[in-house]
Every structure is written in C-alpha cells, then in structure tokens.
C-alpha cells in the first residue's frame, strides 16, 4: 500500500509518499543522520487519509457509468 510519508517538523522536510515500510526507513535514516538517532519533536510517519472522498475523476466516471446503466441497462 502506498500513501505513507515521513515528516520531520524540526527540519521542515517531508519525504515522498511510499509504502509504510519505506516511510519508516526514511524516518530511521533521517533520525540517524540528522539527529544522532534521536526522535525530534514533530517527527512522524503519516498514514493515508481514509476519510477523504475519491478524486473527482473517479466520481465522474462512476456517475457516468451509473447513468449509462440506467439509460441502457433495462432495455428489453
């Protein structure tokens, strides 16, 4: 699963999204290189937001398919 990212608020750096394992590896590497292995305040691996709606293009495609089904799906 993608969508996890690592953010160090102390340094003001956010790493690219990737798997949970990749984000944790980014965190561990950064902690070691920049903070001597310590965990600075604001240091966190963030999970994907599961409460957000899908992108608009997916919603438009789904509604279009649904409308086509209603128009043509019940023809005898």
Helices and strands in order:
Blueprint lengths: L4 E4 L4 E2 L5 H16 L7 E4 L9 H17 L4
Antiparallel strand pairs: 1-2, 1-3
Would you write up a description of this structure?
- The chain has helices at 20-35, 56-72; strands spanning 5-8, 13-14, 43-46.
- The chain has a 3-stranded antiparallel sheet with strand order 2-1-3, with helices on one face.
- The relative contact order is 0.17.
- The mean pLDDT is 89.
- With 76 residues, it is of the alpha+beta class.
- The protein has one domain.
- The chain contains 2 helices and 3 strands; from the N terminus they run E-E-H-E-H.
Shape: rod-shaped
Count of extended strands: 3
Integer tally of domains: 1
Share of helix, binned: 40-55%
**Secondary structural class:** alpha+beta
Q: Strand fraction band?
A: 5-15%
Q: What is the terminal-to-terminal distance?
A: 43 Å
**How many DSSP helices?**
2
The largest sheet has its strands arranged as 2-1-3
Which series of helices and strands comes N to C?
EEHEH
Instruction: Report low-confidence residues grouped into runs of 5 or more.
Output: none
Q: What characterizes the major β-sheet?
A: 3 strands, antiparallel
As a whole number of angstroms, the C-alpha radius of gyration is 21 Å
Q: For the residues shown, what is the average pLDDT?
A: 89
Keywords:
76 residues, alpha+beta, rod-shaped
Compact summary:
This protein is α+β, with helices and mostly antiparallel strands and about 80 residues long. The protein is built from two helices and three strands, in the order ββαβα.
């Amino acid at each position: 699963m993608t969508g996890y990212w690592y953010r160090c608020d102390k340094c003001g750096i956010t790493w690219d999204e990737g798997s949970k394992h990749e984000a944790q590896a980014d965190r561990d590497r950064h902690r070691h290189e920049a903070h001597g292995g310590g965990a600075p305040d604001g240091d966190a691996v963030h999970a994907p937001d599961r409460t957000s709606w899908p992108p608009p293009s997916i919603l438009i495609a789904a509604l279009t398919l649904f409308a086509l089904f209603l128009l043509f799906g019940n023809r005898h």
